[in-house]
Design goal:
Number of helices: 5
CATH architecture: 3-Layer(aba) Sandwich
CATH superfamily: P-loop containing nucleotide triphosphate hydrolases
Number of domains: 1
CATH class: Alpha Beta
Structural class: alpha/beta
Number of strands: 9
Helix content: 25-40%
CATH topology: Rossmann fold
Distance between the termini: 27 Å
Strand order of the largest sheet: 5-6-4-3-2-7-8-1-9
């Protein structure tokens, strides 16, 4: 079973930015996906997936009123999440040295395939770096309690320290060592 580094914190604190920096500076092969806001006229209207190998798709949008899955004001299309995001996670399992998932949140957890893919990652020897919602969710709480898991709380005052600790954590996984990231809040 591989180790996992979970990064949590309040919305807008920079979790996605941190994971993007981490994936961009990773010396090996990183695979998986990031999320991004979809904006129109300066307002957030949805969320998209950007895989680390360049695929893009919108999976949640305020205009999808008839969507089978809803989180707040957003309709969520889990088929897009499965087709693009889950597929990227499974490709990472087969081809990468590090799996990146941004994020484990209420929208993503609507997908049973997403949850299964994360469990597959945890059973594999590959390290996982993921952002995870700060709020409580039964599945996320069980996932947080897994062996070999480190959770770091990101806030405005510790961003650089967490990035440096996360870079060391990933580097240690590549070289076979196991250190724990530093500042947690």
């Amino acid at each position: 079973m591989g180790d996992a580094l979970l990064i949590t914190g309040r919305p807008g604190v920079g979790k996605t930015t941190l994971v993007k920096q981490l994936a961009g500076s990773f010396p090996g092969r990183a695979g998986g996906f990031l999320t991004e806001e979809v904006r129109k006229d300066g307002s957030r209207v949805g969320f998209g997936i950007v895989t680390l190998d360049g695929q893009r798709a919108v999976f949640a949008h305020v205009g999808w009123q008839q969507a089978a899955h809803r989180v707040g004001r957003y309709g969520v299309d889990v088929t897009v999440l499965d087709r693009v995001g889950v597929a990227a996670v499974r490709r990472a399992l087969a081809e990468a040295d590090l799996v990146v998932v941004d994020e484990i949140g209420k929208m993503e957890l609507q997908s049973e395939e997403f949850r299964r893919a994360l469990e597959e990652v945890r059973r594999s020897p590959l390290p996982l770096v993921a952002t995870i919602m700060l709020g409580r969710h039964p599945w996320a709480e069980r996932f947080r309690r897994g062996p070999g898991l480190t959770e770091v709380v990101l806030n405005p005052s510790n961003r650089q320290a967490v990035l440096e600790a996360a870079l060391r954590w990933v580097q240690d996984r590549l070289s076979g060592r196991r250190s724990r990231p530093g500042p947690t809040g």
